[in-house]
Amino acid sequence: MTYGVNYSDTWMVGYNQPWTDGDGYDHYPDDGIGPYVIVCGYGAVDGNAASYSHYYSPFDVTLTSPNGRTSTASTSGAGYVRADVGLQLLEQGNYYTVHKETGYCPGCSCNHPLGGGGSSKLIGVSFSAYYKAVQVDPYRSVYQLVRPCDVNCVFYQSGSAQRFSFYPPPNYIRIGEPWVNIAGYVICETAIRSLEESATPLSCYEL
């Protein structure tokens, strides 16, 4: 039974994300949830575990957030085996995806620890805040960036946001833009965002 080749990764995806119409107005989901971000991870092993009827069992993957939340998955199989995990992005810091595999031998009805792997990403969220500057009509409004806004990533770098809503637009909004630190460089994930609405003033901050 071979040890196989190990693979792992950790990344982010956005759910319930808004879309922009031809006039440049952002449309947000009207479901009471709004957009949010999930940190995803996977672990996999690719090896000749099937020789002599051996197979990987169990194959365990765990994603751990900076404050200790975990998402786990366990599976088994021969050859290429993979499991996926995910957690909502709620705090800043290192998110770790770790996996380990054990080989099961039918001949001795025993398990052999084989190895594993892992990856991590330093992830955070910049929250930029905006106030309603212009009410275009009952459903459309223009927002301006609240200043100062000293964060890693300002979602609307122009300082202006256009918003469409089927209900009266809020006075203030705050956009969360996730970022990842790779080798000391902060990379803003401009395609992913979260949303907060308020009737009272909001400010910019880092998660």
Summarize the entry for a quick read.
The chain has 207 residues and is mainly β.
How would you explain this protein's 3D organization?
The protein has 207 residues and is an all-beta fold. It is built from no helices and 15 strands. Strands 2, 3, 5, 6, 8, 9, 10, 11, 12, 13, 14 and 15 form a twelve-stranded mixed β-sheet that branches. It has a three-stranded antiparallel β-sheet with strand order 1-4-7, with no helix packed on it. Strand 12 (172-182) and strand 13 (185-188) form a beta hairpin. The radius of gyration is 22 Å and the shape is elongated. The N and C termini lie far apart (46 Å). The model has no long low-confidence stretch (mean pLDDT 90).
Keywords, separated by commas or semicolons:
207 residues, mainly beta, three-stranded antiparallel β-sheet
Task: Give me the secondary-structure topology.
Blueprint: E1 5-15, E2 19-20, E3 26-27, E4 36-46, E5 55-64, E6 70-77, E7 80-88, E8 93-105, E9 110-137, E10 140-145, E11 160-164, E12 172-182, E13 185-188, E14 194-198, E15 205-206
Parallel strand pairs: 3-11
Antiparallel strand pairs: 1-4, 2-3, 4-7, 5-6, 5-8, 8-9, 9-10, 9-12, 9-15, 10-11, 12-13, 12-14
